[in-house]
Every structure is written in C-alpha cells, then in structure tokens.
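Supplementary Data S3. Sequence and structure tokens for construct A.
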Amino acid sequence: MVIFKENTLDIEIYLELRKSVKWKKLSKEQAKRALKNSLYTICAYDFDFPIGMGRLVGDGAVICYVQDLVVRPEAQAAGVGGQILEMLIAYAESLRLEGTELMLDLMCAKGREEFYKNHGFLARPTENLGPGMIQYLKDNY
C-alpha cells in the first residue's frame, strides 16, 4: 500500500532516492539546503519503505519548478510518479493568485518527455518558446 507524506522528506531519504536512479551525488550540506529552500516536498512510501519523492522550488507567485521527481526503478511503471507529479501540480495551483498565471516548469531526463506531456507539459522549443538552457557552476579542478 502506497502512502504519501507531505513536507517530511529528510536528507537521508532524499540522498538515497537520488542514488537509486543514479543522479549526481550531492553533499549532505547541499541536500540540507535544498530541502530547507523547497516550497513543497512529497514522499511516497510502500508501507515504511521510501519509493519515490518530488520537490517543488520557486517563488510561489510567478514561477515554480518541479525540481526533483524520483521513483525507485523497481517501483516505476506503477503510477507512483504520476501521483507525485499531480500532487506537485496541485500544490503549485494552490499558490497561484486568483486572476494570474503561474508558470510551472521542469527539465526532464532524456526519454521521459512523453510522461510529462501526458500530464499537460509542453516540450520546448515551440513556435514561441526557445529551448531550455543550463549552466553548471562548480570549482575548477
């Protein structure tokens, strides 16, 4: 039985779930700060075992980002990721001021575009929107 817990994601579970899908390793301090500065987190548990999580960041008025959406490989294709994403979308919608538009953005892993399209996201570039872009800031070693 899958249960969802809001805003209880801790550093250890966050790092463990990221590791389960082979994402870049973060320091504990990075994870601590990331979680502290999140607008909203959701964690999915199969009984007491964490199987997925999502994290929303942003200013809560003009723009929000689905920053993390992770489901352990062994729990994928069971609908958990879709449930987490819908909870993130609903939370972002709850922040939107009446009569305004709030942008909800994300950068998805290659090959996951259809999943997000199925939840109402548009792939960029489009006729009016250019491609998403990224820059990594790091020490030069």
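Construct B, processed identically:
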Amino acid sequence: MNLLQRRLFLELVKVFFLALAVLLLFILMGRAIQLRDMLLGLELGVGDTLRLFGYLCPFFLLMVCPVACMLAVFLTFLRMGTDRELIALRAGGVSLYQMLPAPLLFAFLCLGFAVWVSLYWLAWGMGHFRAEILDIAGSRARIVIQPGVFNKDIPDMVLFARQVEPESGTLAQVLVEDSSNPDRTLTILAPDGSMDTDYNRGELLFLLRNGRIYTERGGAVSVMGFDEYVVRLSLEAMFKGFDLGPVKPKEMSWSELIGLPVPEIAARNERLANKIVVERHKRWVFPAACVVLTVFVIPIAVSVQGIRRQNGLLLALFLFFLYYSLISAGITTGESGQMPPLIGIWAPNALFLALGLCGIRLAALERMPRLPDFAFRPRRSGMDRTGEARP
C-alpha cells in the first residue's frame, strides 16, 4: 500500500506541474493580447514585460491551481483505468477507498498552496504590478513632455513647461490650460512644479506651487492665487487603451479586506461593499475548489475507463467550465446584490462535493453508472458489431 500511495502521489505531482505550466502559459499569452495597447503605448522592453507578467502570475495561479489539481487526479485515474491497473488492483483486493489517501493528500497540499497565494502572494503581485505601471508611465510622461513645447497630446488640455528634468520630474515656468469643462476655461501659471503618481487612484499628478489660476467664464475672468495645486490625469488620458483606476478589492491583501468597514461603505456605495464581501469569499472558495473538484472527478474517471486521453482531457475541461460558470454566476449575483454571496459562491462547491462523495461511494461498491462514452471511443471502420470484417 505504501508503494501504491507513493507511485500515485508522484504521478499526480508530475501531471499537476505540467498542467499548471501549460495553462498558465496560455492565460499569459491571452492576457498579452488584451494588454497589447498598453504594451505598445508604454513602449515596454522585454525585461519590463516579463517582470509585469511575473507580477500577474499570482492572480492567475489562484484560478489555474484548482483546474490543474483536478486534471492531475482525473488523468491519473483515467490512465490507470485505460491500462487496466484499476481492474488489477481490485482483483488483488484493493478497494477505491484504499487508493484515496494519495489524491486527497495531494489535494490538501494544493489547497494550502492556493491559500498562501490567495492571502499573501496575490496582493504582493498586484501591488507591484500597479507600482511598476505607474513608475513606467511617470517616466514615459516625463519624456513625452518636451521643454519649451506646447504639448497637446492630452485631450482638452494644453501643457507647457520652459524646463523639464526627466530624471526628477521637476518642471519650471509651467502653463496649463484646462478646457475639459465647457462652461469655463482654466489657465494655470506657476513658476515651478513636479510630476508624481497617485498609487491608490492610479493617476499621474502635476504638482504646481505658488502660482495663479485664471478662470474664464461667460466673458469674465477671475484670478486666484494658490500655494499648491494638483492637476490629476488618468493614464488613459496619456496612454490610449489603459487605465488602472482606483485600487480594487482584488488587489488588496487579506488584512486590508478584513479591515474595511463594509457597513459604512455600503451607505455610500452598495455595489462596492458587495464586491468587498464577494472578494472575501473568493479568497477561500477557489482554494477549497482543489479538494472539491478532486473528490468530484475521481468517480467520473473510474466510470469512463477506456476512452482516449485527449477525449478525457476535453471531458475534464468541460466539467471545470461547468463549475466555473456556476461560480461566475454566483459572483455576478453577489456583486449586484441579487443573492447573498455566501449562497451564490459556496453553493457550487457544496453541490460538487455532495455529488463527488455520492459518486465515490457508488464507485467503491461498483455501482457507479457508466457514462455514455460512445462519443469518445474511436469508430472502427470495416468491422461489424460482431468484430468480423465486412465483405
């Protein structure tokens, strides 16, 4: 039995890491296509691009880890059934229950890894991704703003600076004309200023000091002096197709999520409060899916013995997409307030776990109904139903 558990565990680990690498690669390639405007707009080098995708890996690992765990267990038991190893083990007196320790231990190890990613590594990656983007955007903005040139690349705004220090972001003799409001036009003059970034709101800042604001409204002009004035620009205003926006709940650490006063936030923005509550549940529901999906697919893998592995892979992916669709529906209804997040998000886990436990009991008693696998079996040409060649 110890030899059986070791062999099972080693095969699960090998298939898991292979599935994890392949799925993560495909997701990152798809994400690169989605972010192509940002990558081209910021003129990122190879090193910057790889570093940004490295920061995004924890976010995708949280979603990929359950499906990689499920594929490892499903394909391992499917191979054992195809090679008739399950029949040989049962003939030797080994029941399905005696095969469960290795996959269950493996599933709980995946759960622990996913919890670590969810509670700690996720916020680290998203935080560094935001900080890196803002730092690169700020550096590119300093290069875009040429000294002694009226910059009109920003919509509804004209920016001029007599002197610009790209390294420090210091500006001298600054003029800003803001016509974003159709009722008035602001002309801001300041002897000096600087460029900075707002991490929480994902914006570029122009900090102007000791200047004046000329407001033109209805043919009248008013003048107001200031010690410090901040001009805020979203990234989308300077780099087309990309805008970070404020820090979202999915970018926060677990301690930050728990510390948010949800009742007070709900009084101002109910949808944001719902997103915070949903995100708290998501940090646990995806790690728990490692164990739930493992229990769910074991009896299915036992009942579809003999199908080809590529067809088994398609079946496993279909089951995961079914599970993920239910989870996504629960997340959507929870964020909109149509259903309590506790029910909407955890109901698929409870359903799949109950089905898996019932399936394992039936499979151990050899009463598990054989799934209709005729669509997965290769069709033999030139043979009739009796196996004899047609004339």
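The chain has twelve helices and five strands. The first strand starts at residue 157 and ends at 165.
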